[in-house]
Amino acid sequence: MENSRIIELMAKKADKGASPEELEELTRLLAANPSYAYFHEIVHALKGNQDHLELMTPKEELVDHGWQDLSGKLNEGESGAGLLKRMHVGMRWVAAAVFLIVLLTGALLYYKKSSAQLQAENPSSVVSYAGFGVTRKLVLSDGTKVWLNAGSKLTYPNIFPGDRREVKLEGEAYFEVAKASKAPFSVHAGKITVGVLGTSFNVKAYNGDKDIETTLITGKVQVTMDNEPEKPILLSPHEKLTIVNEKESAREKKGAGVQVPEPQKAYNALRYQVQRLPQSTDNGFVETAWVNNKLVINDESFEAVAHMLERKYDVSIRFGDERLLQEHISGVFEKESIDEVLQILKMTTGFRYKVEGKTIYLSKQ
Q1: Burial class of 144 by CB neighbour count within 10 A (0 to 12, 13 to 18, 19+)
Q2: pLDDT at residue 324 above 70?
Q3: Residue 165: what are its φ and ψ, rounded to 5°?
């Protein structure tokens, strides 16, 4: 066991991959095993001091450099019969030392291959959150940039395996995918999978929302519904796919004694539509305005707007009158506080509100 550990540490040292603790462990083991210590010296000499040699130096030059290193030690360090005796004995071990070099190289390659294979088979998962009231930007191991909207979670490997790049999204995120033709990028969100090679797009798949949306900005994407994998949907730039979510909104309406029952869940095939997106005046899109910290509301129901406000401002909204749920609202907000937003919405929608801590109660005016 100790011998194999010495070989492993020598291999890692030769590759400059050993930690300070491992180098200290190797020193202790070599001190307790003089024969391996001597091998270590000969291997170092035969391989040369790679700290001062280019990586592409031919093997013959490395060996010559090693012999020069040994000759230098004769002149400047251990001289006389002692070193000559060691050299004489060492000559008998040169073949063994060369064999050890091959063994170390093999061990190093095996170590690297095993580590890479282990990483590919078992990539450690990372879970990143953006809590209510905040957004977050991430850069994945392949260079892909991701913006997480408030109330969202992204699960992804610490390092992507070589042949695939897969992430899982709960909530909303904007992706700028790094190109890698041999490693498709897939986003699993709700009941859909979005597959791309290199593009920018937005996915909105909150559990509480009635729709799942995929908005393509550049490139091309293919969206596959889990219950109809044989019917992929292709999107072109500036197109949005809207799919009716099976997990339709299950908001509990509290206040004024009103309780709205959960809508009946649909277990039939998901319904969807594809629409062309008009650009807004600032050369952007409503669906991705949140990346720039803007809340753009375009003829949305008050229930949908309440979801948006809850996530953006980290509040809880309770409806005391179900007639408010279907009121439709439009507007653009950026730096306004939640109180300012509610004051503005009151001008076009008749309601009263009361704030208790982080809970907002709405009632019909």
Answers
A1: buried
A2: yes
A3: -135, 110
* Calpha distance 1→4 (Å, rounded): 5
Measuring CA to CA, which residue among 173, 144, 170 is closest to residue 157?
A: 144
CA gap 230, 72 in Å, rounded: 72
- How confident is the model over 224-276, as pLDDT tens digits? 988 888 889 999 999 999 998 754 444 443 333 333 334 333 333 457 899 99
Sheet with 351-356, strands from edge to edge, namely 316-319, 359-364, 351-356
pLDDT, tens digit (0-9, with 9 covering 90-100), for 49-64? 443 333 334 444 444 4
What is the phi-psi region of residue 80: left when phi exceeds 0, alpha when psi lies from -120 to 50, beta otherwise? left
How far is C-alpha 51 from the geometric centre of its chain's CA atoms? 35
Q: Please state the pTM of the whole predicted model.
A: 0.61
Q: Residue 293, Cβ neighbours under 10 Å: how many?
A: 11
Answer whether 29's CB lies under 8 Å from 36's CB: yes
Q: How many CB atoms lie within 10 A of CB 19?
A: 9
Copy the structure tokens of residue 94.
Answer: 């040169």
In sequence order, the β-bridge partners of residue 189 are 169, 192
Residue with tokens 């219950």: 227
